[in-house]
Amino acid sequence: MDRSFDVLGTTTAQFLCGGVMLLPYLAVNGTGDTDWSSAELWLALAFLVVAAQVFTYMGFYVALARWTSARVFSWTFLVPAVAVVVEAVQGELPSAVTCIGMVVVIAGVAAVTHPRAEPRAAVQVQQADG
């Protein structure tokens, strides 16, 4: 990872650009029936900002500093599996096909992130570059 790369600045710019792109939608559709004084709304937003964004992004960049990008990016394939588990905990059990898909995804991520897989991948990249 290039130490001169401004991770915080770049991430902030991404979120600001995404927010600006949502402004036309807000102008056309308004806020609907949102109760801005609702404690439940603000708790949900706090969770989404802290857990789903700040914690995740910081963990992602820390992981990139320690492991290969192939290993770290492969973890992103686990997001749907985690979502299915969360839904199952909330009472929406997945179908058999969904469970099979989760097993395939988890096995694939495990195969790619296994320590023995990384040296081969590094050699293949070096051979392709050389």
Q: What string, H for helix and E for strand, traces the elements in order?
A: HHHHHH
Alpha carbon gap, first and last residue: 21 Å
- Pairing-aware structural class of the strands and helices? mainly alpha
- The coarse overall form would be flat
Strand residues, percent: under 5%
Please, how many helices? 6
Q: pLDDT under 50 segments (min length 5)?
A: none
Summed up, the domain count is: 2
Mean pLDDT: 84
Q: What integer value in Å does the Rg equal? A: 20 Å
Protein architecture, described:
The radius of gyration is 20 Å and the shape is flat. The chain starts with 6 loop residues before the first helix and ends with a helix. The chain is built from 6 helices and no strands. It folds into 2 domains: 1-28 and 39-66, no CATH class; 68-130. 0% of the residues are buried. The protein has helices spanning 7-29, 39-66, 69-74, 79-89, 96-113, 117-129. The chain has 130 residues and is an all-alpha fold. The mean pLDDT is 84. 76% of the residues lie in helices and 0% in strands.
